[in-house]
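Note to self: keep these together.
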Amino acid sequence: MKTTSPLWVVLALWGAGLGAAAQFGKMSIIYDLLDASYPLAGPLALGLLVSIAGFPGLILGTTAGIFVQGLGWRRVLVVALAAASGLSLVQALMPPLPVMLALRVLEGLSHLAIVVAAPVLIAQVAPVARQGLAMTLWSSFFGVTYTLLALLGRPLVDLAGPSALLVAHAIWMLGFAGLLWRILPGDPPAHLARLGLGGLLRDHAVIYASPRIAAPACGFVCYTITYVALLTLLPGLSGTRLQPLLATLLPLVSIAVSLGLGVWLLGRVGAVRAVMIGFAMALLGGIALALVWGQVLPQLIASLWIGGALGLVQGASFAAIPALNQSAADRARAAGAIAQLGNLGTTLGTPLLSALVAAKGVLALPVFVGGFAALGIVLHLWQARRRART
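Structure:
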């Protein structure tokens, strides 16, 4: 970091994040082709090929923050990227389904290490005046990756088959492992305190009892439970005229608002208030969507408004990590909590919204959006009140 511009370090770490997001996105983009490789697998098993990589983060999210700090940021990040490269290369062979599922679990561990270590390093290297911009850029890694996979990854698959995408992903991860090994400073000797089950439980209690460490994750879970479900279900529920538009524009609008309005707002009101403003905008968008459902243009505008509002929440939630936590240890714990609760939201959001729509009809969708947006505001107000008392 002393010899390389902070800008290039941040961009390199963001590139590693794009590769981490592709650990999920590569399976999503080839999902419709997996039954050819695994003809005896049912829908549940094929679905697990996408989602099972999130299970390590769901179980070990906060623990990862503790271990990554003890083992060393650079060391963990580079090893995780190199391991991800090797795993993706083996997956390109399309091994038997039980082996592929095991590889996906191991890939989930490498993903967790990357998404815990990289944002902490970004917060450390970015100048204080540019921390909001740097963390907002980091927060866009999932949306940008899915867009790039749709534009470039799927054509590669159509041209050369699913294995070509997995090999390309392996090359990407190995390239960033080498790059970050060169530009990041060396770690001090690893020092990992021995933690038994009791120690881990106590550390979880410390994390979630802290109104500073836990606050970013409290809002982020309300974002992930809503946003992933919307990306998955809203285009299809909106009818044939709106489906292709929403599938393309929802992630793009989220990214644009996050990097535009979001960065501007962070410099004026701070990260936590920006999160609450985003949730308030999403709540208004949910009400509007309920009122105009079935009217093509107003429905499109209301849907994109919600996508933009949630993009604002996304960037500001990551910016809240360094805004609320000064030490690297607390930032690591906050990043781990975001990984853990973010995976919880990603896992639960789509099936929950799908069940609500099946039971109550399509207008359950705007109620779902508004309800979790309101919950996000309430949780942040509660944590802010706790911080004010201490």
